[in-house]
Amino acid sequence: MKRPSIGLTFLVAGVAFVAVACASMQAKSPAETVDARQKMMKENGAAWKAVQDNAKAGNWAAVATAADTLSKNAARIPGLFPAGSMTPDSKAKPEIWQKWSEFEASAKKMETEGARLSALAKAGNAQAANDIIKDFGRNACGSCHGPFRVPPPQK
Ligand code: HEC
Questions:
Q1: What are the angstrom distances between the C-alpha of 147 and each of 96, 131, 141, 151?
Q2: Which is more confident, 44 or 27?
Q3: Which of 29, 44, 108, 112 most suits a substitution to test ligand 1, by most atoms within 8 Å of the C-beta?
Q4: What phi and psi, each to the nearest 5 degrees, are found at residue 149?
Q5: Model confidence, pTM
Q6: What is the atom index within ligand 1 of the atom nearest the CA of 78?
Q7: Domains of the chain: which residue ranges?
Q8: pLDDT, position 28
Q9: If you measure from the C-alpha of residue 45 to the centroid of ligand 1, how many angstroms do you get, rounded to a whole number?
Q10: Looking at residue 122, what is its pLDDT?
């Protein structure tokens, strides 16, 4: 009886590994990726509204929760914009992939500002939390939408 050669065993293992790696990389089509990031952004819209409404109402525990959602979602942003993930439905600008480090920095800013806001709200520090909220829309959302998103139609 002949034993299978070690070389062949490694070859088979290698092919299987590459097949698995490719399958996991192609798990999502561009349309699915665009859909996933638009859903996440809608959630950001809702969480940002929750921050503002609850801050006005003085409900700082709820502000902390919503700000935490914003921070965690921000950490997911770069992963939801793989190169080539464009469809006619997407409002993402090609500048994202031309200026990737700026795009990443912008997501990071939303992550750290969200975490800072969450911590202050949790501590009930209304004054400092309101100071962040005042500029959050411009700092943490607008600073990325400006250069990297096709603006929605003006009403
Ligand atoms: C690092 C960049 C970046 C940051 C930060 C960011 N966005 Fe976005 N946002 C985008 C891009 C790009 C799109 C368009 C995505 C697409 O259509 O493929 C978008 C789309 C949206 C949409 C439209 C989703 C839809 O229905 O198609 C909303 C709402 C939104 N963002 C809210 C927010 C809010 C609120 C914040 C801040 C709390 C925020 N975004 C922060 C890049 C960002």
A1: 8, 25, 11, 10
A2: 44
A3: 44
A4: -130, 135
A5: 0.85
A6: 1
A7: 30-148
A8: 87
A9: 8
A10: 98
